[in-house]
Amino acid sequence: MELMGRKWNNIKEKKAAKDKNTSRIYAKFGREIYVAAKQGEPDPEINQGLKVVLERAKTYNVPKAIVERAIEKAKGGAEENYDELRYEGFGPAGSMIIVDALTNNVNRTAAEVRAAFNKNGGNMGVNGSVSYMFEATAVIGVEGKTEEEVLELLMEADVDVRDILQEEEAVIVYAEPDQFHEVQEAFKAAGITDFSVAELTMLAQNDIALSGDAQVQFEKLIDALEDLEDVQQVHHNVE
Question: Distance (Å, rounded) from C-alpha 198 to C-alpha 180?
Answer without folding.
Answer: 8
